Amino acid sequence: MSILFKMRSNLLKTTMLVMVFMLIADALYAATYYSRATGLVFTSNSLWSTTRDGATVNYPGTSHTYIIQAGHSVTLGANQTTAGITIEDGGTLAPNGNYTLTSPLTIDAGGVFLINATRITMAGNTINDGTITITNGRLIRGTFSLTNSGSITMGAGQFTATTGTFTNESTGTMTVTGTATITLGTGTFTNNNTSASVNFGSSVVTLTGTVTRSVGGFTTTGRFSANNTGGTITLTGNINCNGITRNGTGGTVDMGAGLSHTTTGTVILTAGTMNGGTSTINVNIISTTAWQGTASLFVPQTSTVNFGAAGNQTLSATGTKTFYNLTFSNSGVKTNASTTVNNIFSLEGTATASVAPTYGTDATLRYNTETSRTAGAEWLATFAALGGVIIDNTGAITTNGNKVFNLNVPLTINSGATLTPAAGHTFSFGGDLINDGTWTASTGAVTINLARVSQSIGRFSTSGLVTMSKTSGTATFAGNINGGAFTMNGAGILNLGTGLTHTFTGNWTNTAGTLQGNTSTLNIGGTGSGTGVTFTAGTSTVNFNGAGAQNIPAFTYNNLTTSTGNTKTLLGTATVSGVLTINASTTLDLGAVSLTLSGAGTPLVNSGTFTSGTSTVNFSNAGSVNIPALNYYNLDITGGERILANSGTIGIAGTFTPGSGGFMVTGSTVELNGAAQTIPEFTFNDLVLSGSGAKTILTGTTATVNTIAILNGPTMDIEGTGAVNITNP
Questions:
Q1: Strand partners, 282
Q2: Which of 524, 511, 519, 462 shows the shortest CA–CA distance to 495?
Q3: Model pLDDT for residues 586-630, shown as the tens digit of each residue
Q4: In the β-sheet with 397-398, what is the strand arrangement from edge to edge?
Q5: Residue 184 and residue 339: Cα distance in Å, rounded?
Q6: For 631-697, where are the alpha helices, taking DSSP H only?
Q7: Terminal-to-terminal C-alpha distance of the chain
Q8: Element (H, E) at 14
Q9: What is the pLDDT of residues 705-724, one digit of tens each?
Q10: How far apart are CA 61 and CA 55, in angstroms?
Q11: 279 pLDDT above the threshold of 90
């Protein structure tokens, strides 16, 4: 018995060693086998050969690589484990039951992996350069990868990537023609082709799990649901779907960077977080629940949400709905109660907002439409958000009331855009007016207000009052301004800008502040008044061009012009440092004031009527100055060289003060035509004495004349040592 037991024991050991050596040999001598027939089950003994066209051998086992050749269709009839399977061009592998394939699978271009009404679970990496066809079956991915450079087509089956990665390469496509179930699970889905290259048909696409990963773009007419309960799913491609659901407490879906997602269904915020990223989310469903759930679950980042359906939409989510950029486009009323916009609120198409949103500190209201419209509730009467209002469209925007822009808040009219203020509507600017488009002429008042340090005011036109009432800081005109009356009554500064022309048809009232002429022209059609303003003329021109009588404030002007008609009366002592021009059909009345003309050359040009009153006119430039032939009251020509007009008569009714400069008198005539007057020591050309009273040459002075004429009425008195020297008796 003992000997027999030992013999049996030795035999068992020997058998086990043989089996081990066979397994080791099988592992050590793993080979590649080629299909040699079609229509056979994978494990068929007569299916495989060690060469492409050699004799068949028994099924060699699980450690080898199997190649399905062109023209061969092989059936997977059981769970299968191999070192690898390759389906070559023209070859087909098709399971006939619910099996697991534990094997790397390579599908060459032209190869087909056919899954009909079965379930196949992949437990190895798959590379598809050919075709995967799922008619009504199920393909389940585990922890392994699927790389698709070919095509995947599905009918009404299931595609589940539980944990593994799914990469659709630049040439890869996935098309679902029916209503399939698509679960991307916790794996990473990368789409390196366009979003349209992965079309899930009408399938519901669900993202689950707790793992942080990325998901590429795709198209489906079903819903897109991000139900992950942990981690962050980041979209890396555009999603087109029929509804977006954010569910799963603790999880986040990030809509990605610079993408454009479009849903024709509702957005439902149930649990977790939806992070807008920097992408655009287009919500294109006509619905009273277009944006529903709990509003706070949406974290906008710097995204844009566009409600773009051709009809009414309601943002019905509970709580405050906060957006970075919010767009209402296409048409219909967008009901937006309890909405906050932190950057740009844009109205496009004919869409309207039911109420104004709450604007964040730096927010902007933008009109961007080809259709003309009247502003609605969104344009608040007082706009405080620092982004201001932008007119950025080819359709004119008509105001719906008076508009106030708070401190540093701009109004921008872009090129090609039009703002049409409705009749009587007023504007008050505490920030910039940037007008590169069109401001339709209005009738309401415009006020430049508040204490912005540097304020730019672009062109506008109104028949209403224009007021500068800044308490401090400088406002500068950046375009031509047309207004009715013009009032300065703030402590700030108004700069008329560079090379511009501003026309005011009404009165010019100067109560307070500083007006800087710069290099522009100021046309005043009404009467001027007030002395509370400091006017710094620069090289500007002020033109009193009204058809009626006008008063000219007592300022220091550069160029001063009268035009159009009637009498222009100087209200007080004034200086013109450039040229005083009296145009035809106008009268300049100096009254009893002093006028200093400090320009060189020809500082006074008269084509109209010069009325001196009892004024004093002083030509004060140290250089050469031409003295025109006019009737003056007091005339002071002290300073540099003076050239008296060689035609016409220089009439003086009061005091003539020649000074000690060099004089050119050839051809000139000076007429002392007042009452009693003193003849100064001066070399005249022709001197005429008219008027009345004595014309006296004081003792110690000599008047030199070429000719002298004493008309009826006055007398000439020569006192003491005074003398008259007649050079052409």
A1: 262, 306
A2: 519
A3: 999 999 999 999 999 999 999 999 999 999 999 999 999 999 999
A4: 373-374, 397-398, 418-420, 438-439
A5: 33
A6: none
A7: 181
A8: helix 2-28
A9: 999 999 999 999 999 999 99
A10: 17
A11: yes
In the chain, % helix, strand, coil (3-state, to 5) comes to 5, 45, 50
Secondary structure (DSSP) of 257-294: SS-EEEESS-EEE-SSEEE-TT-EEEE---BTTSEEEB
- Strands lying side by side in the sheet with 693-697: 677-678, 693-697, 714-718
The DSSP symbol for 422 reads: P
> Scanning the structure block, which residue is given the tokens 């009425």?
713
Could you tell me the two tokens for 279? 């992408």
CA proximity to 585, closest of 555, 544, 556:
544
Query: Which tokens in the block code for residue 251?
Result: 């999880």
Based on the number of CB atoms within 10 Å of its own CB, is 136 exposed (0-12), middle (13-18) or buried (19 or more)?
A: middle
What distance in Å separates the CA atoms of residue 137 and residue 85, rounded to the nearest whole number? 20
Q: How open is the CA angle 15-19-25, to the nearest 5 degrees?
A: 140
User: Would you state the structure tokens that stand for residue 121, as one six-digit string?
Assistant: 């679970």
Q: What are phi and psi of 122, to 5 degrees?
A: -95, 125
Q: Is 71 left (phi over 0), alpha (psi -120 to 50) or beta?
A: left
CB 558 within 8 A of CB 540: yes
Task: Check residue 115 and give left, alpha or beta (phi > 0: left; psi -120 to 50: alpha).
Answer: beta
Residues β-bridged to residue 634: 616
Residue listed under structure tokens 């595609």: 159
- Single-letter amino acid, residue 149: S
| Cα 605 to Cα 661: distance, rounded to the nearest angstrom | 22
Which residues make beta-bridge pairs with 226? 207, 246
CA–CA separation, 20 and 499 (whole Å):
101
> The pTM is what?
0.86
SS3 26: helix
Q: How many CA atoms lie within 13 A of 378 on its CB side?
A: 33
Q: How many CB atoms lie within 10 A of CB 403?
A: 22
Q: Residue 332, by phi and psi: left (phi above 0), alpha (psi -120 to 50) or beta?
A: left
Q: Residue 94 has which token pair? A: 């098709």
